[in-house]
Design brief:
It is built from eight helices and ten strands. By secondary structure, it is an alpha/beta fold.
Length: 213
C-alpha cells in the first residue's frame, strides 16, 4: 500500500503481510504472527523489490516485537539495507508495545536505541487517542522516528471519548524529532483534518487499497 504526501504524491510503500481466508473471503494477519519467521519476510522483500524502481521512496516493513528481539534481526537488517534501494522503515504496532509485559517493553526500548536510525527508521503505527497509549509510548519517543495515527480513533461521536486530540498529539511531538503520520484515512473529513494540522504524511483507502505483489 502506498504512502502519500499532502499533494497525494507517492513517497513510499508499506509491505503488508497477509494471508487469504477462503472461508470468509478476507485477508488477515497470518496465524501465530508473533512467530512469523524473518525468512518469510525476506521472501516478500525480494518479490516487492523487483517491482519498485522509484528513487527517493521508502519501504516500510511490518514487524512484531518478538521479531525485533529475535537474535537474527541484525543479520536481517544488514541484508535488507544491502539489497533494497529505498529508505527502510520498520513498523511496530502500538498495541503490541503497550500490551506486552513491562520487562518486554524495557527490552524493546533498549533494542530500538541500538538501531542505526540513519539506515533504518522506526515507525509505531496504530496510535489512538487514549491517554494510556500516550503514557506508555512516552519512553519510546527518543528511540523512534514516526508515529502513525489511526484516523478513525479521532472521529468525534457521542459514543467515543477522545482523551488526546490529534492536535494535542502533534504539539506533544513538536518537543521531539518524531514526525506524525495519519493512517487509515478513508473519508474526506479525515484528509481535511490532516490538511488543517499540517500533517504531511498520509495513508489510507481514500488514496488506494493494498495490492498483491
Amino acid at each position: 500500500q502506498t504512502i502519500r504526501n499532502s499533494q497525494r504524491q507517492i513517497i513510499g510503500y508499506e509491505l503488508l503481510l497477509r494471508e487469504y481466508d477462503e472461508s470468509t473471503g478476507q485477508w488477515h494477519l497470518p496465524n501465530r504472527v508473533s512467530d512469523f519467521p524473518l525468512s518469510r519476510v525476506v521472501q516478500a522483500v525480494q518479490k516487492v523489490d523487483q517491482q519498485l524502481d522509484d528513487q527517493g521512496t521508502t519501504l516500510a516493513l511490518n514487524m512484531t516485537g518478538s521479531q525485533l528481539l529475535d537474535f537474527r534481526a541484525d543479520r536481517f537488517f544488514n541484508w535488507v539495507v544491502g539489497v533494497v534501494d529505498e529508505q527502510i522503515l520498520i513498523e511496530l504496532n502500538a498495541h503490541d508495545l503497550c500490551d506486552c509485559p513491562w520487562w518486554s517493553r524495557l527490552r524493546l526500548k533498549h533494542r530500538l536505541q541500538q538501531i542505526d536510525h540513519h539506515r533504518i527508521k522506526v515507525v509505531v503505527e496504530g496510535v489512538d487517542s487514549s491517554s494510556r497509549t500516550r503514557r506508555l509510548l512516552r519512553p519510546y519517543l527518543l528511540s523512534i522516528d514516526y508515529l502513525k495515527f489511526n484516523a478513525k480513533a479521532f472521529n468525534k461521536s457521542a459514543n467515543h471519548w477522545i482523551d488526546v486530540t490529534l492536535n494535542q498529539w502533534k504539539q506533544y511531538l513538536a518537543k521531539s524529532n518524531v514526525q506524525p503520520v495519519l493512517g487509515r484515512i478513508e473519508e474526506p473529513g479525515q484528509e481535511q483534518l490532516a490538511d488543517q494540522l499540517g500533517i504531511k504524511l498520509r495513508q489510507g483507502y481514500i488514496y488506494d487499497q493494498p495490492k498483491l505483489i
